[in-house]
Target: Arginine biosynthesis bifunctional protein ArgJ
Amino acid sequence: MPVNFIPASELSPVQGVRLASIEANIRYKDRDDLTLIEVSEGSSVAGVFTKNAFCAAPVTICREHLKTTDGIRYLVINSGNANAGTGEEGMTSADLICAEVAEEGMCNLDCVLPFSTGVIGEQLPYWKIVEKVPALIESLDANNWMRAAKAIMTTDTVHKGVSKQLEIDGETVTITGISKGSGMIEPNMATMLSYVATDAAIKQSELEAICQDITTQTFNSISVDGDTSTNDSFVLMATGKSGVQLDEKNSDKIISALSDVCQELAQAIIRDAEGATKFVTVSVEQAPDYDYAKEIAYTVARSPLVKTALFASDPNWGRIVAAIGRAPVENINISKLTLYLGDTLLIESGEPADSYTEEQGQAEMNKEEITIRVVLNTGDAKAHVWTSDLSHDYITINADYRS
Amino acid sequence: MPVNFIPASELSPVQGVRLASIEANIRYKDRDDLTLIEVSEGSSVAGVFTKNAFCAAPVTICREHLKTTDGIRYLVINSGNANAGTGEEGMTSADLICAEVAEEGMCNLDCVLPFSTGVIGEQLPYWKIVEKVPALIESLDANNWMRAAKAIMTTDTVHKGVSKQLEIDGETVTITGISKGSGMIEPNMATMLSYVATDAAIKQSELEAICQDITTQTFNSISVDGDTSTNDSFVLMATGKSGVQLDEKNSDKIISALSDVCQELAQAIIRDAEGATKFVTVSVEQAPDYDYAKEIAYTVARSPLVKTALFASDPNWGRIVAAIGRAPVENINISKLTLYLGDTLLIESGEPADSYTEEQGQAEMNKEEITIRVVLNTGDAKAHVWTSDLSHDYITINADYRS
Model:
């Protein structure tokens, strides 16, 4: 059961975007597992991908196509098989899929971006995808966001989608995004796929910068278990069909709405994290710089001992302190460090707080939403990481995933 | 149940070393939880300690005393309370304990090294220790190694001790060591305590160098869960009472025996890792340098997804590949990488091996002792990490540890 998360019951269409999903029987039976997203000609499309050196074939191809394309038109996404660890044969499979979409969609090969998510190390049965492409093209529709959100799921227990609308100078700008992912979620994303589209007009170079910034604050600030996937991808699309152009006056408003959608999608992944019973924010403040703060936040968020204590609702704050102490940063000044669990002061200037009682700690730990706040008092930078606890169900899900 | 581990039924006394253990009721009832180790005057003593910035009070004091002492005489070790995260009060507690041992043992304060292991963040009831010191001094005996091995245990399910004897020029040199630790075991050791003594004569400066080298190859090559404790300590003692002096001729033999004892003690911790059902060696070979190899080995050894696959005996090697790919090293050349599970070839020069069958992988995974061998083909360096799988029992033990 996701923590404090009610899946969206409808998602707004975005002008210039059409979607289709279908059953291709790649691994799953009796459910959609193949999705095509079409963006109108002239759209800007930017992507951020996994930093895993052993990245999947489709990730390599996405990077190439984004470099050479004169405009992305199609995204083709399968679930059930990651097409990772599949060598040259995997590259060929992804190429064949792109070629079929390009032919049916009447565009160049490099106008197609391929994505795969699922089991690593098995060859992708590309022919099952290729043969469905004509039917996908046929059934493209602006109202298919919800169906796409469900088709891209793997171990997710709920679909994840968010829509927002803004009024700008009398025009409506729509933003709709979907994401999938519930495990292997880590620093630079992990078996996480997310697609967010807006009908605002945003220049390619600006969209790329926005995409990077938002990723740092949202999808790259989540952690379930420290594992980074071979396939993580986030794609931001701007069709311009609303007629509203991003400019100095409206940019804060539009970027902030894009960021909100991505934050909700990123948090939804954590709320639906494998076996999660808590939603945990680790916030590190007053640090010398952002990376310093984030390293500490990640070290706490990744600690299996902290995560099992959270699962047990045990205010065993010694484990938090031990995790902070082993963070890979130089010169942590413990004597300046202050630590809160929710509103409860645990450590003040490096010393156990006199005011602390086990009852206070227990009350904070009993909550479903927990904030661990580390105040370093050695600078102005801050960073946060959203994470979950580590439960029996995590082991069950991951020990049984392939069977 | 530890993996392939039969605890020693006896441990050899080491000339010049006497030990005593006693019930002090610090946290546990009806068991020894306080130990004193005495080394004869003129012994060399070297130590390696946690790199955790939030290190425990006794670790800080150990470091100071090793700097200023004219010769360590006593080690005092309690289990049940780590005296970590305890601020100034914790420092005072550890000081008071050392002062009492120094008075009863008739030596300077800085001839005493204090150690604590157990729950973090609770003040140490130092008076329970202080009042037992006279009785400890009274009962010191060379034959108490086994009792000490048991008294330092916390979540360990078995005691850990190893003895070895060498003949050198007609003289017998004895090495005996004990260790404790079964969780939080990570890179630079973790709630791991180990004490190894020999009656060979080794100069202080030489012993310090040997201590560092052995630590890198043994105690700093184990990983259970990525958490580094506030209290980890390894102490190597040489009394010289055998009459055998370390020299050019015998040094390989003596150092190799010391290293073997430490390797057995380090591996025993992994074999008894919380919830472990497998003993896993991750070996990275033909790397550009040692640190490069070790980073990759640790990334694989720490991956919760790899560890749950090991628990499930699932030859889901894609997870191993994904972990290698996200290791924090520069320029991994995937196209040169070869990967074995035991003797079974999985990946050859970056491509899935044609010879591989799921049956082969399954057969390797079904074993209790598993070796993951990563051959980078980009240098001459190699490193290994010993680790365990991640099971339901890990969660149970760590969710319930304080209750």
